């Protein structure tokens, strides 16, 4: 069996280094492809580093508290028959040849851009080329960084676009009614502006309702719908979360609500909270979110439900949910047409918590 190196991953465009929070597997443990072997925290989020091969964990090179650059050696996986001397030689060769990327090249690759579309500033990020395009549509209070662990993987075989909806991220904050129709119209305008005639739509949370609304308005534009913990498939939603997120503007006010997004609360890093606080304090954000919440979630109830006509909206549908979702209950996945997957032990941000599994499901679905 070859000697496999576990290295510091690159999550998102701005990541330059990560801090090791601890090992989840001990030396001598059997590991399989997809197993999380250690926790790493970046300036954006904490997540588990997944093994991409089968074998036995033979070395833990990085230790808890170590901060290491992208690509640095974390650990070694090999079979039990591989000698210690062979592993030591492989580690020595890796460390001798490894050169950390310079800070000015760490962000190499596609960068977010902005365009004036239908009278609004729209921030977007495109990765990949060819194939049938994919559009990633985030949820309430989110932005294109919600696809941090998915975008590049999905773009390996096709063009994949992520955008900030009106009122969100670095797109324009002004909204008229804040209705799901207004948000869907902004997505259609984006597709028009980018010359995208037909696309797979992937919507998370409120982005799911937006995606379904796009399909209802312009079915000829939608090749398929992939709905992740989607709004628009039932009436129930966590009213306390919506109201708390809209009203909160400080770290202490927002943190209790942000913790509900993940089954593993340790993934809510201080930096993630600070980024949300900065966003919430931007001019026009509170007004935009109030309008959107009032239109889509008035009285703590989802106002637009497509459940009974989901199978008529697109030729194919995929539904993915985290079983421990505290924002929109996973029971809303029951009885839906198409391919339905509920992932155990994961929460509302399932595309982050179970990125490898979600990416696999999406890539298989796209074909």
UniProtKB/TrEMBL annotation:
PROSITE patterns: BIOTINYL_LIPOYL, LIPOYL. Residues 3-78 form the Lipoyl-binding domain. The keyword Transferase applies. This is Acetoin dehydrogenase dihydrolipoyllysine-residue acetyltransferase subunit. Its cofactor is (R)-lipoate. InterPro entries: 2-oxoA_DH_lipoyl-BS (IPR003016), AB_hydrolase_1 (IPR000073), AB_hydrolase_fold (IPR029058), Biotin_lipoyl (IPR000089), Carboxylesterase_BioH (IPR050228), Single_hybrid_motif (IPR011053). GO terms for molecular function: transferase activity. It comes from the Bacteria. The keyword Zinc does not apply. Keywords: Lipoyl, Transferase. Transmembrane segments: none annotated.
């Amino acid at each position: 069996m070859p000697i496999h190196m576990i290295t510091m991953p690159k999550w998102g465009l701005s990541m330059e280094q990560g801090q090791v929070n601890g090992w989840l597997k001990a030396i001598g443990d059997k590991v399989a492809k997809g197993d999380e072997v250690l926790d790493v925290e970046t300036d954006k989020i904490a997540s588990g580093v997944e093994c991409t091969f089968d074998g036995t964990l033979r070395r833990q090179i990085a230790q808890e508290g170590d901060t290491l650059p992208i690509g640095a050696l974390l650990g070694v996986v090999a079979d039990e028959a591989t000698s210690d001397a062979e592993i030591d030689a492989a580690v020595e060769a890796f460390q001798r040849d490894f050169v950390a990327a310079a800070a000015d090249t760490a962000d190499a690759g596609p960068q977010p851009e902005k365009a004036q579309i239908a009278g609004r500033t729209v921030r977007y990020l495109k990765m990949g080329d060819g194939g049938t395009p994919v559009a990633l549509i985030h949820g309430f209070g989110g932005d294109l960084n919600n696809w941090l662990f998915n975008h590049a993987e999905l773009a390996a075989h096709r063009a994949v676009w992520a955008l900030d909806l009106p009122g969100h991220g670095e797109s324009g904050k002004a909204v008229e009614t804040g209705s799901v129709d207004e948000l869907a119209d902004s997505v259609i305008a984006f597709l028009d502006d980018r010359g995208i005639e037909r696309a797979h739509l992937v919507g998370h949370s409120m982005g799911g309702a937006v995606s379904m609304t796009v399909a209802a308005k312009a079915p000829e534009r939608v090749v398929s719908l992939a709905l992740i913990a989607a709004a628009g498939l039932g009436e129930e939603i966590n009213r306390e979360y919506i109201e708390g997120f809209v009203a909160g503007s400080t770290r202490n006010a927002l943190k209790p609500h942000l913790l509900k997004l993940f089954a593993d609360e340790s993934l809510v890093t201080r930096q993630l909270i600070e980024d949300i606080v900065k966003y919430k304090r931007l001019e026009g954000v509170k007004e935009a979110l109030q309008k959107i919440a009032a239109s889509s979630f008035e009285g703590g109830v989802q106002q637009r439900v497509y459940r009974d006509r989901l199978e008529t909206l697109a030729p194919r549908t995929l539904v993915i949910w985290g079983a421990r979702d505290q924002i929109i209950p996973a029971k809303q996945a029951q009885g839906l047409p198409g391919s339905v997957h509920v992932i155990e032990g994961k929460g509302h941000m399932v595309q982050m918590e179970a990125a490898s599994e979600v990416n696999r499901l999406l890539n298989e679905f796209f074909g």
